[in-house]
Amino acid sequence: MKVSSEKIIYPVQSSFKVLKYAVPQFDMPFHYHSEYELVYITQGSGQRYIGKSIHNFRPGDMVFMGPELAHIWVNEKQKQESGVETEAIVLQFSDNLFQSFMDTPEFSQIKQLLNRSQAGLKIGGKTREAVANALDTLLECQGTEKLVCLIRLLDILARADNLVLLNPLDYQERGYHKDHRINVVYHYVISKYQQRISVDEVARLAHMEKSAFCRFFKTKTQKTFTRFVNETRVNHACGLLLENKLSVSQIAYEVGFNNLANFYRQFQKITGKTPGEFKNDSN
After folding, report:
1. Is 280 helix (H, G, I), strand (E, B) or coil?
2. Which CATH number is associated with domain 174-282?
3. Looking at the domain that runs over 3-169, which CATH code has it been given?
């Protein structure tokens, strides 16, 4: 999948965006933007890709994502063909909307929430119900009350203790969103993982010598660049295994491995399971 940058346009006389989508199927490409985004699926099913996280979605699925985190929702083909509508409520706001409040004691919990959202957060249980109600209210609010409703919604999330990190290793090991060079590399790998990826080319994108880039990447992520590429490919392989439409050998070549034995070796090294074990456990 090719990853693209999206420019968010806010409505007139509003500092953020909240709206309800009702379409036959999601048609946005794999993309990223500089805004925070909350997505609540009210109808439709398929797979969602957020960073390197791949999971199925269905009505009730709710996630909160930080800036520059690449994502896409892909509908199931049988849903597309049947004409069943896909519905979602989407909230987007700028990363500098609350900048003047970030270092105040009152905003400390919300600041922590926004930091954690850089890895993507899955929202469930009673928190999801409370946020869903807050979104319904937000859709009806106007003027100052609209901004107050947004803060209340973020406060609900900030106080929740059942949010799940979608990319936990990324959150623990690196803050790639804070370094433009890592961000460029990340999006390049996401868009090119099916092809041969040259370290020399990636180093040039980061405007660094190859050896300096390898040291820089290892320092920032606590892993080698090769490990990062293999993790990206294996994560996408997991998504294809869940779809149950291709053979293991087809999936190996689909995600960029040109050697089946190496695919099995890397898959087990990263997931701790063989592709067959992963598939059986998921089922």
Report:
1. helix
2. 1.10.10.60
3. 2.60.120.10
